[in-house]
Amino acid sequence: MTKTEKKGNIEIEALKDVVVNIGGIEEEEEEWEPMGPTPMPGIVDLRDWDYKLMDRYKPFYAPYCEMCCFCTFGKCDLTGGKKGACGLDMTAQQARFVTIACLIGCSAHTAHGRHMLNEILHIYGDREIDMGTGINIEAPLTRLVTGIKPKRLSDFIPVLDYIEEQIAQVMDSVHTGQEGSNIDYESKAFHVGMLDSLGKEVADIVQIVAFDLPKGDPDAPLVEIGMGCIDETKPMLLVIGHNVVPSVSVIDYMRVHDLEDKIEVAGICCTAIDTTRYSDRAKIVGSIGRQLRFVRSGIADVIMVDEQCIRADILEQAKRTHAPLIATNDKALYGLVDRTDDSADDIITILVSGKEPGVVILDPVKAGEVAVRLVQIMHEKRKGLVHLPTDEEFKEYVEMCQNCDANCVIACPQGLPIGEANKAAAAGNIEPLAELFDLCVGCGRCEQVCKKHIPIVDVIHKAALPLVRAEKGMIRVGRGPVLDTEIRNVGAPLVLGTIPGIIAIVGCGNYPNGTKDVYIMAKEFVERKYIVVLTGCGAMDAALYRDEDGKTLYEKYPGDFDGGCIVNIGSCVSNAHIHDAAIKVASIFARRNIRANYAEVADYILNRVGACGVAWGAMSQKAASIASGVNRIGIPVVIGPHGWKYRRAYLGRKDVDEDWMVYDARDGSKVRIEPAPEHLLVAADTLEEAIPLMARLCFRPTDNSMGRQVKLTHYMDLSMKYLGKYPDDWPVFVRTEADLPLAKKEEYLRILKEDYGWDVDLEAKKIISGPIRKFDVSFDATNLEQLLREKK
Length: 792
Fold this sequence. Notes:
alpha/beta; 29 helices; six-stranded parallel sheet
């Protein structure tokens, strides 16, 4: 039995009627699993595991800036091997920057969880954690990292205390005159990434329990998504951000007053996803890339924001359309007057009069009431306002453009040919301009540099208006966690490779070539019977497209966690359940103890669970912390080309034998394995490069021959489909002729013999020599010496 320090009451066996209340006591805790070696790990407790990862996957730096400007010694030039005034070199500075980005991302998710837990405990009270009959392992990350098995929402308080304390410790290390090793900064980034995943799990479980959101429901409802799905004849409330508590209050007030069919509530970013998890009558406008365009459209009568992924100039943009702004979170106040203590009537009077363009209301219940009452009044008041350019203004703007290209094209993150499109529009062809709408990420930087002050974002929107009005998709409501029963069904096929892998599409909307890339990725892999899971912006953007039968991916494919299914897990905080699924495979299928046993479970996942994360539009610091958390637990991630701006990748070298040596836990012998997975964090420049890479990163050394056949089939086929050739490295994944896909076995054997010099008996269809290693069905790969059952 383990003991934990607690405050509370104790019962003395001999004195049943006597309760002694002591400030701090030792209370014996339920022994649900033996306590592992690393409960609530500090900075150094998993450092050895991090070093093992980086021995194989070396940090590779691509400095976005070669100067350091952090202190008053600077600016310091770090090029050419030079050090800064504090002694820090380029590699350590880049790793330090990554650590800071991860700290920002982790702080955002953790503070979100803390704020939400505090609000829920205050408004609704403490609640028992009940995740439904299909889930017994209710918080795998919490169990794995802290050793705590939470039973009530208040049990997450010490979990958040732990995360916040660790954030402070790591933040201390980035101060001038602290850490000097890039490898140890990378270890700290891994640590913060793990904390981030834990904070996300807390946040999502808190809102699931408090608001009775779906608990792993594969048949969660379908809801409308897209800028064209909004009924403009109704009052329209736009919610933006990530913290759903104020939006829940909006829905509650509407339900009490029978207004759900009379008001349109739709959102942008993760608040949108979580609002639809609470009410399937709510709608989703889209991901972050649609924010500026939709606000400028003027469709929203009132805008309510909470926290994260909100434009910093949201008040300015709301003023342009005469839509009052309600700020509901102390992290984003926009210089507005705090009216929390004013009456709802007084607040509404002030906003309707226009005396104040917006207000702060930090009471979510009051914010919900004000938003609903206000939107009905503002809808009537704003009738007749025109926000996008008229036909005459549109013509004037495109003719005004000098097609200089020197400013807007350079300022555009995508380098879109804005000037050429304006020139074509001036000549009567608006199609090139309309085609820019989806490629545009909606940042507005082009307008900041235009010498003619053309509202370029609005001009593109006007040209694409027919397409925008037709943007009507369907998305399955975020289902939340993966069921234990689902893990029992897929555990063996995943580990053996017969389900070729899990493709997890997460992250922001900073795509290199528009939203359709995410749809194509999801469609490609679900058709090949991978498990495709999505969260956040990726989940939304994949829902915007329909096939020839008029169905979106969510309408066409089931929502189960199984091969050939499309699974919307939920919002950004929900992607902790993707970690959880991998942890559950180790717990349920492999019967590994998970309690405070991080390194062993991560080692298991790295060697056995074929999963690949994809952050194709990674933009924010949260994306950096998400990727680092996924990496530490042994799952590789592919990022889009903008991902290089994070400054660091983790790349493997398949030609370096010593990097691919692992133990066979059966006898302690060392085995040179194939590069599986080859990289831990890698950027791809194009969709065509990314898709075969994603398939390649799902190989694992423990695949059986049937599983390796399946994975090799997809890898070869995808490379031929998107790159026009077989990959050069495919032979490294062949251990025996049984690994070769049956349909092309003879062709592949001939290629191995003629092009790669392998000794192959073509008549017997047998490989004599050539593979890196022989296939051993009972091979028990591990990187951890403590897991060896014998030592040679």
